[in-house]
């Protein structure tokens, strides 16, 4: 372990990563009528969190071979001893990129929202509360805490949609809240089932610790694993979302304010897939093997549905929202191969999609803001008046459709590869997701051609069109740089993930 | 003779008699309330002293006569009832400041609380019945306290007629049980050793009977109906929304969080000690009633336009949740938890939910009362834009409602978490597989309830309403603050409360 690691471990870095945005949120709420102060506080605290998260990532040790559920920076305090509930946080190579992504996107989303004029301090405070919840989910190693953070995320997102959203915001906010809450409570029942099933085999008595419950999963009967895995898959799947439980997503995404959509698509969806790879598969491997066919079927269905539905959208933001369904299906497909490469690529796809989708939603927000509409048919020739904007759109779209050299390709290619050679033999089903790539390219290029190029549109007033502002450009530049950087050097992230994906695949008997 | 067991009750009832005299002499609402509070806090102190003094069970008049016992169970419930009385009295200082007969008002609250404490500590059916009647008669008068208020008078009439009928049914059931247990006592070598109405004696008599006897069946049905009225379970709930709506709102708080809980104590004592031998005959029935009650309460709450009625139906739903604990508590298998059976574990969940519900539902009603003194209406639409008019009250209401919905990290989440884990535990014990449906119904209902709670929050925080500020009386704000602090503190640090609930369960249900 490095000196940096010891230093960070000594200052309880993970707890600090939860506390920093929390303190920031409280201070921001207290800022009163001083809007600039509120914005400054929010940006400052999210920046410090990002710096700490970066240091945490640098200090993390990913060399060597790791077993299942080996965590670093672990901290643990007993919380409710009579039920075996503790405060336990820790990270491994799967969560480190996610934590960093969370800190990054929250910082950029706050910067991007610099011009929010309506109830600014609440807005900024809620963004930070959201950051607390998401970071907590990615670090919690106790089911009670995991569930708390999981649910805490809902409240700020509910308000972000309900207060700052589009015309149908109230419907979308409540639908989002209820839909994902139903999924959470089903997950909760599954957690109870694992808790009580594990309790007799634990020496220290019942415990909600993920590590302890996982350590005795050999005692879980196959039938039990199959039922509970299905419940967990439902609970996490709705959040991802998987078809057919995706219907909350288009509403929530379209109505949410831009930064809300960025965090929703960039982070909240990842919580679902993170739950599958952190909880469901390692704890219930036999259940996972039992339902492998279902995972693959749902993944392919989501990929195909996302592609075709995007093709049909008239609204740019809706198109991007539906494309998320397809890309999260890709994550699930990677996981469902149960191979080291597939799992690692699935996690990488989570990371990549987080960066790409942030760009996509930001450019949708900008066009709404500047041109007053997101309807593809009303736009046209924007590159003439907004050249920088057009560049960002192109990078985002190209990354999302999987252009080699950008981050999307580095994620999707290994997923397809591992699925095509699943279990060592050629798999003809690969044709279905491959077809979807062609459709994805079609809808992106088509919409790009219609909105950016050709003659300048006459359907809207174009006299006031101007290019992006500094606070919009800065986050987009940062994201585009990262998209290219990790596209050219994917190993910067893969090095973290691979050593920790291998033991999960090993658990499933697949290499 | 040892008076420890009844000293808290005597002090409270004694001061209740004194309070009208204080009112007559001082003619001051505040001084009267102060004396009432002194009585309540003295009583709280006596119970706490007993807890600190080793919490050894204290009997009155002696152990053999089986009349009254102060133990961890009754002690905990006394504290709950007294806390409710304390914040109700505190809130009433502001709420009833213009009412005449303040002395009688406070005296009746204290007498009702004494009745609840008698029920909590009773060991035989007749003592329990006397306690219930003491509370009921006091609360009839309290509901009708504003006698010129038509709705209040109507509510009181309805409450009195329904309450009288339910008491008659319960009494009929008690007399049938008396027949059964007296017959058994007379057959014993020394009948004078037994109190025929003591729960233990009833338990032995019913066990000796072995199977369900028609008389016992009739008695069980009568008692479910009689006590069912008190806790407002479907189909005996019809009075609750009308009475909760018509009563002075502080009294509604007491009814919902105090006297309703007394009904659960009666259920627990009678069914878990007296009738546990025939659990096979009633456990499933109670389970079905629980599911129907929570579903009905939640569904009807959705369509309410008056906030008191909405909270009343939510209270019915909560009664359904709490009732889940009753079937689970009949399981006597040993558990993985130190010194607990599965039944005790499940019962502790029910008790925990009662404790938290006393604060969150009572708190919500007190907030409604507080706002109505500031001339805010009782329709849900009147709460539009409340976050601007009374930010602290709106925040407190949001906390209460989210807690009722079971959103972490609030008290309602912790207690629901524990409560719903009980049936999942029972699922794993032989013969109780059906109980998993109690958990599934519970969590799904909990998700459903989020809709109407979130709607109120949406009105308060999202919608625009009138802008003039609301001024609220200080004493009521203090009462609200007590509830808010309790809800947050229990949510964040539930360990000691869970321990207390488990001890209470152990005291009621001998292993």
- SSE sequence of chain A, one letter per element: HHHEEHHHHHHHHHHHHHHHHHHH
Largest sheet of chain B: 2 strands, antiparallel
Poorly predicted parts of chain B: none
Figure out the total of helices of chain B. Answer: 20
Question: Between the first and last Cα atoms of chain B, what is the distance in angstroms?
Answer: 29 Å
Question: How does the SSE layout of this entry go?
Answer:
The complex is a heterodimer of chains A (511) and B (511).
Chain A lengths: L2 H8 L2 H17 L5 H25 L12 E9 L4 E7 L3 H18 L7 H20 L3 H10 L1 H11 L4 H30 L11 H6 L6 H18 L8 H8 L2 H26 L1 H6 L1 H20 L4 H21 L3 H32 L10 H4 L1 H15 L5 H14 L10 H22 L17 H19 L2 H17 L4
Antiparallel strand pairs in A: 1-2
Helix pairs in contact in A: 1-3, 2-3, 2-5, 3-4, 3-5, 4-5, 4-12, 4-16, 4-21, 5-6, 5-7, 5-12, 6-8, 7-8, 8-10, 8-11, 10-12, 11-12, 11-15, 12-15, 12-16, 14-15, 14-20, 15-16, 15-19, 16-18, 16-19, 16-21, 16-22, 18-20, 18-21, 19-21
Chain B lengths: L6 H20 L2 H24 L5 E3 L7 E3 L1 H24 L6 H20 L3 H19 L6 H37 L12 H11 L4 H18 L7 H8 L2 H26 L4 H24 L4 H17 L1 H4 L13 H32 L12 H4 L1 H15 L5 H17 L8 H26 L12 H19 L2 H14 L3
Antiparallel strand pairs in B: 1-2
Helix pairs in contact in B: 1-2, 1-4, 2-3, 2-4, 3-4, 3-10, 3-14, 3-19, 3-20, 4-5, 4-10, 5-6, 5-10, 6-7, 6-8, 6-9, 7-10, 8-10, 9-10, 9-12, 10-14, 11-12, 11-18, 12-14, 12-18, 14-16, 14-17, 14-19, 14-20, 16-18, 16-19, 17-18, 17-19
Overview of the structural elements:
The complex is a heterodimer of chains A (511) and B (511). With 511 residues, chain A is mainly α. Chain A folds into 2 domains: 1-176 and 237-271, no CATH class; 312-511, no CATH class. Chain A has 22 helices and 2 strands. Chain A has helices spanning 3-10, 13-29, 35-59, 95-112, 120-139, 143-152, 154-164, 169-198, 210-215, 222-239, 248-255, 258-283, 285-290, 292-311, 316-336, 340-371, 382-385, 387-401, 407-420, 431-452, 470-488, 491-507; strands spanning 72-80, 85-91. In chain A, helix 12 (258-283) runs parallel beside helix 15. Chain A starts with a helix and ends with a helix. With 511 residues, chain B is mainly alpha-helical. Chain B has a domain at 279-511. In chain B, 74% of the residues lie in helices and 1% in strands. Chain B has 20 helices and 2 strands. In chain B, strands 1-2 form a two-stranded antiparallel ribbon. In chain B, 64% of the residues are buried. The mean pLDDT of chain B is 92. At the A-B interface, helix 6, helix 7 and helix 8 of A face helix 17, helix 18 and helix 20 of B.
């Amino acid at each position: 372990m490095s000196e940096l690691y010891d230093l960070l471990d000594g200052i309880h870095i993970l707890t600090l990563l939860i506390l920093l945005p929390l303190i920031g949120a409280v201070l921001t709420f207290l800022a009163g009528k001083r809007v600039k102060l509120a914005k400054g506080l929010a940006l400052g605290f999210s920046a410090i969190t990002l710096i700490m998260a970066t240091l945490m990532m640098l200090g993390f040790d990913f060399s060597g071979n790791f077993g299942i559920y080996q965590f670093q920076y672990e901290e643990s305090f007993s919380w409710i001893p009579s039920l075996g509930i503790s405060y336990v946080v820790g990270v491994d190579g799967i969560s480190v990129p996610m934590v960093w992504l969370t800190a990054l996107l929250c910082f950029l989303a706050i910067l991007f929202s610099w011009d929010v004029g309506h109830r600014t301090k609440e807005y900024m405070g809620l963004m930070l509360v959201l950051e607390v919840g998401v970071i907590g989910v990615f670090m919690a190693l106790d089911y009670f805490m995991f569930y708390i953070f999981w649910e805490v995320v809902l409240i700020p997102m509910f308000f972000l949609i309900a207060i700052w959203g589009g015309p149908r915001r109230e419907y979308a906010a409540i639908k989002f809240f209820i839909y994902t809450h139903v999924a959470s409570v089903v997950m909760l029942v599954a957690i109870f089932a694992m808790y009580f099933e594990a309790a007799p085999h634990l020496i220290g008595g019942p415990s909600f610790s993920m590590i302890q419950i996982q350590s005795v999963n050999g005692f879980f009967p196959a039938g039990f694993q199959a039922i509970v895995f299905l419940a967990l898959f439902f609970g996490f799947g709705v959040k991802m979302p998987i078809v057919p439980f995706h219907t909350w997503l288009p509403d929530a995404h379209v109505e949410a304010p831009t930064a809300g959509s960025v965090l929703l698509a960039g982070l909240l969806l990842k919580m679902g897939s993170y739950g599958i790879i952190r909880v469901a598969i390692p704890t219930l491997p036999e259940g996972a093997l039992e339902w492998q066919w279902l995972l693959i079927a749902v993944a392919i269905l989501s990929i195909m549905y996302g592609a075709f539905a995007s093709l049909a959208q008239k609204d740019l933001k809706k198109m991007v929202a539906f494309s998320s369904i397809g890309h999260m299906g890709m994550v699930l497909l990677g996981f469902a191969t149960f191979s080291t490469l597939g799992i690692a690529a699935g996690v990488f796809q989570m990371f990549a999609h987080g960066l790409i989708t942030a760009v996509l939603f930001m450019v949708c927000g900008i066009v709404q803001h500047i041109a007053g509409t997101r309807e593809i048919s009303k736009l046209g020739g924007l590159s003439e008046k907004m050249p920088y904007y057009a560049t960002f759109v192109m990078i985002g779209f190209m990354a999302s459709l999987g252009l080699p050299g950008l981050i999307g390709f580095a994620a999707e290619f290994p997923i397809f590869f591992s699925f095509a050679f699943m279990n060592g033999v050629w798999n003809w089903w690969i044709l279905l997701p491959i077809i979807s790539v062609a459709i994805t390219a079609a809808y992106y290029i088509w919409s790009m051609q219609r909105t950016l190029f050709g003659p300048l549109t006459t359907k809207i007033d174009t006299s006031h069109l101007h290019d992006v502002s500094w606070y919009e450009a800065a986050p987009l530049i940062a994201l585009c740089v990262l998209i290219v950087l990790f596209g050219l050097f994917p190993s910067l992230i893969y090095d973290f993930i691979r050593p920790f994906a291998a033991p999960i695949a090993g658990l499933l008997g697949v290499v | 003779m040892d008076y420890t067991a009844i000293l808290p009750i005597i002090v409270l009832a004694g001061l209740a008699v004194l309070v009208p005299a204080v009112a007559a002499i001082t003619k001051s609402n505040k001084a009267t309330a102060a004396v009432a509070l002194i009585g309540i806090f003295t009583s709280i102190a006596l119970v706490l002293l007993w807890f600190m003094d080793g919490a050894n069970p204290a009997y009155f008049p002696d152990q053999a006569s089986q009349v009254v016992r102060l133990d961890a169970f009754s002690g905990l419930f006394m504290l709950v009832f007294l806390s409710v009385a304390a914040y109700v009295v505190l809130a009433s200082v502001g709420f009833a400041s213009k009412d005449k007969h303040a002395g009688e008002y406070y005296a009746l609250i204290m007498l009702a609380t004494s009745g609840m404490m008698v029920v909590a500590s009773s060991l035989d059916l007749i003592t329990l019945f006397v306690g219930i009647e003491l509370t009921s008669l006091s609360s009839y008068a309290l509901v009708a306290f504003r006698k010129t208020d038509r709705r209040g008078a109507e509510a009181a009439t309805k409450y009195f007629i329904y309450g009288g009928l339910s008491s008659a049914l319960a009494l009929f059931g008690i007399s049938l049980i008396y027949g059964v247990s007296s017959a058994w006592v007379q057959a014993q070598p020394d009948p004078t050793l037994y109190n025929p109405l003591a729960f233990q004696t009833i338990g032995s008599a019913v066990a000796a009977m072995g199977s369900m006897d028609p008389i016992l069946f009739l008695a069980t049905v009568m008692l479910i109906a009689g006590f069912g009225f008190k806790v407002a379970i479907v189909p005996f709930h019809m009075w609750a929304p009308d009475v909760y709506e018509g009563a002075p709102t502080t009294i509604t708080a007491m009814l919902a969080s105090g006297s309703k809980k007394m009904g659960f104590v009666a259920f627990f004592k009678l069914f878990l000690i007296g009738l546990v031998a025939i659990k096979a005959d009633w456990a499933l029935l109670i389970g079905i009633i629980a599911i129907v009650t929570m579903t009905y309460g939640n569904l009807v709450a959705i369509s309410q336009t008056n906030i008191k009625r909405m909270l009343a139906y939510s209270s019915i739903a909560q009664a359904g949740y709490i009732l889940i604990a009753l079937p689970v508590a009949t399981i006597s298998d040993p558990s993985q938890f130190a010194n607990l059976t599965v039944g005790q574990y499940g019962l502790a969940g029910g008790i925990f939910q009662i404790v938290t519900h006393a604060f969150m539902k009572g708190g919500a009603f007190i907030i409604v009362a507080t706002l109505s003194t500031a001339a805010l209406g009782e329709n849900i639409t009147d709460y539009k834009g409340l976050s601007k008019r009374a930010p602290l009250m709106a925040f407190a209401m949001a906390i209460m409602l989210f807690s009722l919905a079971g959103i972490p990290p609030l008290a309602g989440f912790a207690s629901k978490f524990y409560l719903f884990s009980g049936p999942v535990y029972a699922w794993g014990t032989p013969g109780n597989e059906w109980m998993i449906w109690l958990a599934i119904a519970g969590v799904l209902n909990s998700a459903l309830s989020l809709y109407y709670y979130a709607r109120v929050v949406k009105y308060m925080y999202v919608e625009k309403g009138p802008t003039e500020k609301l001024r609220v009386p200080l004493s009521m704000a203090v009462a609200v603050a007590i509830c808010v602090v309790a809800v947050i503190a229990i949510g964040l640090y539930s360990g000691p409360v869970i321990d207390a609930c488990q001890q209470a369960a152990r005291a009621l249900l001998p292993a």
